[in-house]
UniProtKB/TrEMBL annotation:
InterPro entries: Aldolase_TIM, DAHP1/KDSA, KDO8P_synthase. This is 3-deoxy-8-phosphooctulonate synthase. It catalyses: D-arabinose 5-phosphate + phosphoenolpyruvate + H2O = 3-deoxy-alpha-D-manno-2-octulosonate-8-phosphate + phosphate. It is found in: Cytoplasm. Keywords: Cytoplasm, Transferase.
């Protein structure tokens, strides 16, 4: 896959990592536009190719009373408005075969959640839309096994596939990132490191996932040093009141400083090659 194949993606010749970033879930139009405006400003300044991320619905929830969305079509229309307002591509995750064609009408990249990446019908449905497909590595899967997930996309006639590592289960309530997997998965497709989900602490007794946002920069730096093609970072201007995954999101006010430091690290790494 080549970045130039993603519609409206800017700064692709800057020799930088690309960024998938936004809120975990679309909570409303104002919040989505507010976050997108800030991230666009930062990424334009630093020449980082940027894709706005927002889930139009959340299906993988710990409790039945967890927030799942504001309505599928309503959220998808907000994603389209973000794209049209800022002239940027967007990505959202899908959970059912019927979601693929519906979401493809509104966004540029379809994301397969980690828990669902072995679901052949879902992966094939995403591939058959012709959109770029982002495969989240299952927390229970080896890097090597992602070759077969990627092949499901390409064997369906779609060469536009990328892989995102979001950590591997370590016991019941923690995640680790095995950086040995980055070069392995880059053999199959461009590889993204999902920094914020890698810092989740799932399966808490409360039914609400915890996290370690204090470690975001540590994991992000390690990803850049190890040549990831892109970073995935969920961000919100008020994480403590976010309706989903607030415990591991980056506060939006810290994003520019983080990106500035990561770009400098990337320049250093580029000078070695």
């Amino acid at each position: 896959m080549q970045l130039k194949n993603i519609p409206q993606l800017k700064h692709i010749d800057a020799n930088n990592f690309f960024l998938l970033s936004g809120p975990c879930a679309i909570e409303g139009e104002e919040m989505a536009l507010r976050i997108a405006e800030k991230v666009v400003s930062i990424t334009d300044k630093l020449q980082i190719p940027y894709i706005f991320k927002g889930s139009f619905k959340k299906a993988n929830r710990s409790r039945i009373d967890s927030f799942t969305g504001i309505g599928d079509e309503k959220a998808l229309k907000i994603l389209r408005k973000v794209s049209e307002t800022f002239n940027i591509p967007t990505v959202t995750d899908i959970h059912e075969v019927s979601d693929a064609a519906m979401a493809a009408e509104y966004v540029d990249v379809l994301q397969i959640p980690a828990f669902l990446v072995r679901q052949t019908d879902l992966v094939v449905a995403a591939a058959e839309t012709g959109k770029v497909v982002n495969l989240k590595k299952g927390q229970f899967m080896s890097p090597e096994s992602m070759k077969h997930a990627a092949l499901k996309v390409t064997d369906s006639g779609n060469e536009q596939v990328m892989i995102t590592d979001r950590g591997t289960m370590f016991g019941y309530q923690d995640m680790i990132v095995d950086f040995r997997g980055i070069p392995t998965m880059r053999q199959y497709a461009p590889t993204v490191l999902d920094v914020t989900h890698s810092l989740q602490q799932p399966n808490q007794s409360s039914g609400v996932t915890g996290g370690r946002p204090d470690m975001i920069e540590t994991i992000a730096r390690a990803g850049i040093v190890n040549n990831v093609d892109g970073l995935f970072i969920e961000t919100h201007f008020d994480p403590s009141n976010a309706k989903s995954d607030g415990a591991n999101m980056l506060d939006l006010q810290y994003l520019e400083g983080l990106m500035t430091r990561l770009v400098e690290i990337r320049k250093t790494i580029n000078s070695f090659e």
